[in-house]
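for the record, two folds in this file. i put them one after another cuz i was lazy. first one right below, seq on top, structure tokens after. the second one comes after a little note so u can tell where it starts
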Amino acid sequence: MKILPKPRGYWTFERCALEAKQFKTKKEFSKSPAYSPAHKKGWIDDICSHMSSRRKPNGYWTLKLCQVEALKYTTRVEFENNSPGYQAALKKGWMDQISSHMKIPDYGRYHCVYAIYNQRLNKIYIGITRNKFERRVLEHQSTNNRTNSKEIAQLVDTKYIQITEYKFDVNEIGSHEKQWVVHYIEQGLEVLNSASSIGAIGKTRIFWTFERCQAEAKKYKTKKAFRQVSSSAYTAAQKQGWLEKISSHLTSATKPNGYWTKDKCAAEAKKHGSKAAFKRDASNAYSAALRQGWLEKISSHLTTGKKPNGYWTKAKCHEEALKYSTKKEFKQSCGSAYSTALREGWKDEICQHM
């Protein structure tokens, strides 16, 4: 059943505190509709004092512990997605030192040749891809499949076979695809590929190769600028595990712990005309003020910029979500769109790129 949103003003301090008592961790509490209003009002620390924290104390992640943690993973992407030790190692500049055993996947950079084969019908489709093979299989099996493979792709006795490793660049792969087509024709199989598409690298192939992402990253001085101005290249590099390698020259705008005092937050707030602009353009200062309970006092001169009821349609939520590379970033930067998408059941669909 669809749960109706609470009326404005429903979540008072007392109600938020009562709701918080039902949870053991802030992560669990964050899924409750009470979390967002409590966070905005700066009540989180007060009402969550009984909760256990999974965060490690400052200084916990030493070089030795990061090395031990990194050995659990075979790629940087896997390390980043599963361990807080990744961020600690990243901030300290230890990643190259502790990840020498990790491999950078060749998919995304080089092509492989694969086959979709049905022995009973004696039919085969030859494909080439830069994408991860498992992902390409799902694309062929989907109802949106527009290739000739759809004749056999969804049959239960059809097999998906990766014929070669990811080792062919864009100039080589076409001739190798042709060779395998010829091979299977000579074996007496019916090849489903259209003659015009054999050996061609279509427009649907990935645009952001490693080389293009690397060239794009060189245009910027900070990661923040790279992410905001060229989000598609940034997201592609992040997904493929290239981000740290191509952005080693970029500086981080992160301030040291304790930098954002009340006076500095107030000075920063004066630069903006609305709370939304303050939150968007100075998120670190905004978050510090919110966390410390200073926000209302230092932003009394700012307009709220609240959207009218019904503003966040599915299309607008999707458009807003595309600005961010992680769900956490989306939630922190535009809580109203995130909360609406969560409430309406759109979150998973509009956050697929994250």
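(here's the note) second protein begins now
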Amino acid sequence: MTLQAWSEVADPVAGEGVSATDYGIPVLLLLDRLHALEDQVFYIPLNGATPLVTGDKQYWRVPAKFDSGTLVAVAACCKVGSTSGAVTLTVNNGATSMLSTNITLDQNETDTLTAAVPAVIDGAQDDLATGDLIELGCTAAGASVTYCAIELTIRPSA
């Protein structure tokens, strides 16, 4: 039986991060999975049985647990999809958009999983602080959309 030879790698230094060159891809993938276990998902409804209209808004206050946290994913869904035109949704921190590409629910679709153009989080605007008031809004309502909601996935700071 042949034993696997292992090379020794120095311990990571605080503040310097972990690179694929120094620690290998499997270590980085494991770290991503560990961080994802800390993620928390918030589901914020914009409307109920009354059809969605342009200008509908909802607000979410960032709790202390997520001070220095990061918005890592967004999604949206509805019970009844638009019968005419796409739905466009925004996520703003104050007056600043957190998305470089807004959330879209395509006509006749009820989830963003199948969006022709997926939402993109702006990496320069994804940081959160305690007390930030996140505004979730509708800028294009389509027609007959009910029970529309936005899902935010937040990662606490390390």
